[in-house]
C-alpha cells in the first residue's frame, strides 16, 4: 500500500501503457462502447487511474480520481460535436521514462503520459489525431463558406424583392424552407461522424 501511495504522489502511477486489441474486452471502457451502433475500439491507453479509449466515433475517457481510488467518472467526447485541436507529441529524452501526447477535444485539454516502450504505437495515434484535426478544420472552413453563401443569396433575394406571383407569406415560407434545407444539407456534408477510415490508415494492430 505504501508503494502505491508513493507512486501516486510522485505521479509515476499516471504513466500509461497501450492495450493490445485482444485485451480490449478486459478494460472498463469497453463496457461503454456503443457496439450496437457499429462503434469499435481502435486504441486504448490505460494508466493506473484512467483509460483513454479511442473509437471510430468518440473518445471515451474513464477518469479516475487517483491510482488508489475505485471511483470513476465517465466522459464521452463524440468527434461530431467535439473538435480536436492543438495536437502535439513530446518524445522521450535519454533519461525520460515516458512520451507525452497532448490535444484539446471540445473544451477539454488532455495530456497523457505513456511508457516510452510504446513510443512507436503512440506515433501512429499522433498521426491519426493530426489527420482528424486537419479534416475537422477543413469541414469548419467549408461550413463557414456555406453559411456565407446562404447569407449572400438571402440578401440578394431581399434586395430584388419577393416573388410577385406569390404572397409575401408564401415567399417568406419558401425562403425559410430553402434556408433550412440548405443548412441541413451543409451540416451533413461538412460534419464527419465516423473516423474509422482514418484510424484504419494509421493504426497498425
From TrEMBL:
Coiled coil: 115-142
Domain of life of the organism encoding this protein: Bacteria
Pfam family, one: bPH_1
Residues covered by the Bacterial Pleckstrin homology domain: 10-132
UniProt keyword terms in alphabetical order: Coiled coil
InterPro entries per record: PHb, PHb_sf, YvbH_oligomer_dom
Record carries keyword Protease: no
Domain YvbH-like oligomerisation: 145-205
UniProt-recorded name of the protein: PH domain-containing protein
Species name: Lysinibacillus composti
